[in-house]
Design goal:
- Helix content is about 35%, strand content about 15%.
- It is α+β, with helices and mostly antiparallel strands.
Length: about 850
């Protein structure tokens, strides 16, 4: 739809296509939203999705099976113990052909029934579940147990139809029951919350288990068991699984913060105390909320819906800041605790669709879509300004999942186009000869040698379903609920299989109900007689990230063009945006003409140039060795803290002698407090939060602390600096100076301390470093463009330095003006005039809005 300001009556001589002019010159007019998709187009895309699946699954079976996962760059399988250890990531691998098990029910959804039958035979023949390996309880439950149960349900359905799987005798269910029993030892805790890891052969407490020392688990890890464990109990008749999963859910509910009704991120499995009190809907908590809602759908137990509704009200009150979802402190939920979001929260719009809350679902999904437009994929984490925080993209399916749910709820073909963009980007940027490779950094496009099993389990399932009609599917998809790994469990379990005795928990007192507390969403009720309601909601967030920015439908329309270097002339800035500039003397007078020239309709855009508040950035600090023999010549780059003394305001910094803390991590009582008193302490990162260490050392009398990274080889050249943050509680009591050194810089300091018993250092902001003048920081600028009435400039309405654009039939006249108007009020001089020719084709397809340059030394780190 064309901007309202264009729809005005003009004379015949003045009638011409302003849309083409504006689009050609600046690319600012919004493209027509032609989102409808023909059945033929959907078929082409669906066939493309099947071909992509064949490439991914075929590569796994050819190059990796029976290994757990495919390494798509190396074209071989990832076998645990034979590849470099990746830490907790490898806890998903149990030497049980993970990708095969995770993919089984996807084969049925994609109507690959022959391949499904063959894959089931392979799983029964090759997969062992008694390996001496420590695995994640959470990952093994959702991927392997869920995969076995989903495959059993599909195999049983095909067997009942009579044309396939007639040989099948519930072998997959027997495997699921065996795995369930191998996971049960994890629940042997005083609280009922499960251990995060278990040895498939030896359990948890056995001397041979190599696990059982963990004391914490994430909320999602403990709260994402109920679907699989309850389904296993209902299908096998053994109630023990559902009992344990319900108990874990009960503990999390009881341990919620009663004032805010929020839960934290990490909890102690023995005493139920919260370890990390951040609350959000992303990593660490996400699927706990998902499983409350879906447990009600699968099991028909009102207790789960009541709990979900109470939590959901709290989420919408404290965490939801449409279109953003920001983590807060569970005890003080009115304050956001971080300025970035992780990609796992992309599932939440889909959950909101199940809840019936479509408006915020549409808003958040549109925000996420704009981020994918800017970065091609959702980065693993991104800031509230939509810059990259963590650049990885692991082929996660959550955004596709929410896209599927929104299309099914709204029927809006816009979401088909979103799905099409996902398909195209996966093919263009992640496809490799041996499958699809994760993206190591969305800013560079570099690949990572991994293709996680969830890519086959979830991504292709949601994409295929998005472009399929019910009649084209081998099953009735409405008969099933998706687990968090997109495995299919029949909703009939609540009626055909009896609830386990003693498993019905007390229903809490419900808060005030809303329209959809106990009913499914109805677009007719929510948006009566408004078939374009989704577009109406989306339009407010269309240009959130600056990509494809156009005139916004506001009473006063304006465009903000970020200008971050005051040394760049505005005209040069426009050039950098793809607008070609030609001196006015190369254009005939007729091309510009006077105000009354026939066939010319003039619109003035007044650009007001103003300094903007500088975006928050990490200010580098330094540790300067000032005692002999260094005498200030050795300077180490350090990161600052968001709490404690503000060294940037200390003209002379903080000077003191170095003393190594004992214990070195400073997480326990300080044994050498007398030595530390009045000096600067040296402490190792890890084992507890920065704030905990700082408090202990402050109590011991330290005047400053230098934290050294415990990750070997890290350094300030290869790793962006970050700001240390507190533990979520108030840090106003911490007043000493705090800085952070990466491992390589820290080694210089520790070596100096070993060689010279007395080492004096100076802690200060880098701009105050001894022997250097103060750094002059560039300031940011915004150019705000707005429509001005004819003659407004002459009347002095524009204040300060301005740029004047005059849109005419053939182009844009750009005039630079100083604060004082030119003498005579006539046309500007030739030197002040430049002509903006029509933008290149690239300028129309690539947005005429410059993104903020990525600051390498930016971000915060909450990990101790």
């Amino acid at each position: 739809s064309r901007p309202a300001w264009i729809n005005r009556r003009t004379s015949t001589a003045e009638t011409w296509d302003m849309d083409l002019l504006i689009t050609g010159l600046l690319g600012w007019v919004k493209c027509q939203e032609s989102h409808s998709m023909t059945p033929e187009e959907k078929t082409v895309i669906r066939d493309q999705i099947v071909e992509m699946f064949d490439h991914a699954y075929g590569s796994y079976m050819k190059h990796a099976y029976p290994a757990d996962e495919l390494m798509p760059l190396s074209c071989r399988g990832r076998v645990r113990g034979q590849e470099p250890n990746r830490g907790d990531i490898d806890d998903s691998l149990g030497k049980f052909s993970l990708t095969l098990i995770d993919t089984l029910d996807t084969l049925v959804v994609l109507n690959k029934l022959d391949e499904f039958e063959d894959a089931v035979r392979k799983a029964l023949r090759d997969v062992r579940l008694d390996n001496d390996v420590v695995v994640s309880v959470f990952e093994t439950n959702i991927r392997v147990l869920g995969g076995l149960l989903g495959a059993h349900v599909m195999a049983d359905l095909l067997r009942q139809r009579g044309d396939r799987m007639q040989w099948y005798r519930d072998e997959l269910l027997h495997m699921a029951k065996e795995l369930g029993h191998r996971l049960l030892p994890a629940f042997n805790t005083t609280s009922g919350l499960p251990y995060p890891k278990v040895n498939l052969r030896h359990g948890v407490l056995s001397p041979l288990s190599r696990t059982g020392t963990e004391s914490d688990t994430c909320t999602a890890c403990a709260g994402t068991m109920i679907l699989e464990f309850a389904a296993l109990s209902r299908l096998s008749g053994e109630s023990v699984f559902e009992e344990h999963a319900r108990k874990a859910m009960d503990v999390l509910w009881e341990r919620r913060q009663k004032g805010s009704d929020l839960v934290g991120t990490v909890i102690n499995i023995h005493n139920g105390e919260w370890v990390r009190r951040e609350s959000g809907v992303g990593a660490g908590i996400d699927s706990y909320y998902e499983y409350l809602m879906k447990a009600y759908i699968l099991l028909g137990d009102n207790v789960f819906l009541e709990r979900f509704n109470i939590h959901y009200s709290a989420i919408m009150k404290y965490i939801s800041q449409p279109p953003l979802l920001l983590n807060v402190h569970m005890h003080n939920p009115t304050v956001s605790v971080r300025s970035w979001m992780d990609s796992l929260l992309a599932f939440f719009p889909g959950l909101q669709v199940l809840r019936g809350d479509l408006k915020p679902a549409i808003e958040t999904h549109e925000m996420l879509y704009q981020v994918t437009k800017q970065h091609k994929f959702l980065p693993e984490a991104f800031t509230t300004e939509f810059r990259v925080h963590w650049g990885q993209h692991l082929l996660r399916p959550e955004f596709a999942e929410s896209t599927y749910y929104l299309y099914k709820a709204t029927g809006d073909p816009y979401y088909l186009r979103v799905g099409q963009s996902i398909v195209e980007k996966l093919n263009a940027y992640t496809r490799v000869p041996c499958g699809f490779a994760a993206v190591q950094d969305v800013r560079t496009g570099a690949h990572e040698d991994r293709m996680d099993s969830f890519f086959l389990a979830e991504m292709f399932k949601y994409l295929y379903l998005l472009f399929s009609e019910k009649s084209q599917l081998p099953i009735n998809i409405d008969d099933y609920i998706f687990t968090t790994e997109a495995h299919l469990l029949p909703v009939s379990l609540s009626t055909t299989q009896p609830s386990c005795q003693g498993n019905v928990t007390m229903i809490p007192v419900s808060q005030e109900d809303d329209l959809f507390t106990h009913s499914c969403p109805s677009t007719e009720t929510l948006f009566p007689n408004n078939p374009s309601f989704a577009k109406t909601i989306r339009d407010s967030y269309k240009y959130l990230t600056g990509v494809g920015r156009a005139f916004r439908p506001l009473p006063v329309r304006e465009i903000e063009l970020p200008l971050h270097d005051n040394g760049m002339e505005p005209v040069e800035f426009l050039k950098s945006m793809g607008i070609s500039l030609t001196p006015l003397n190369e254009v005939t007078a007729g091309d510009y003409g006077s105000q009354k020239h026939k066939g010319v309709y003039r619109v003035k855009l007044v650009a007001e140039v103003s300094q903007t508040l500088e975006e928050e950035e990490v200010v580098p600090h330094v540790v300067q060795l000032i005692s002999p023999p260094y005498l200030g010549r050795t300077v180490l780059t350090a990161g600052p803290a968001k709490f404690g003394m503000d060294l940037s305001k200390q003209e002379h910094g903080v000077k003191g002698r170095l003393v190594r803390a004992c214990p070195y991590t400073a997480c326990g009582p300080i044994d050498n407090a007398m030595e530390i008193k009045g000096h600067i302490a040296l402490a190792l990162r890890g084992d507890c939060m920065f704030a905990v260490k700082a408090r202990r050392l402050q109590e011991a009398g330290a005047i400053g602390v230098i934290f050294i990274d415990h990750r070997e080889g890290s350094n300030s050249e290869d790793t962006p600096l970050f700001q240390m943050v507190g533990d979520g509680d108030s840090t106003e009591d911490i007043t000493l100076a705090l800085v952070f050194l990466f491992s390589r810089e820290g080694a210089v300091l520790t070596a100096a301390l070993e060689e010279h018993n007395n080492v004096d250092v100076l802690l200060l902001a880098k701009e105050r470093e001894m022997g250097h003048g103060k750094t002059v920081k560039p300031f940011g600028m915004n150019i705000k463009l707005r429509l001005a009435e004819e003659g407004e400039l002459e009347e002095g309405a524009a204040r300060g330095p301005t740029l004047e654009f005059v849109l005419g039939k053939e182009g844009v006249l750009l005039k630079e003006e100083e604060e004082e108007e030119p003498q005579g009020g006539g046309r500007p001089s030739q030197e002040q005039q430049q002509f903006c020719e029509k933008a290149t084709e690239d300028a129309r397809t690539e947005p005429c809005s410059a993104d903020s340059p990525q600051t390498p030394n930016s971000g915060t780190d909450t990990n101790p």
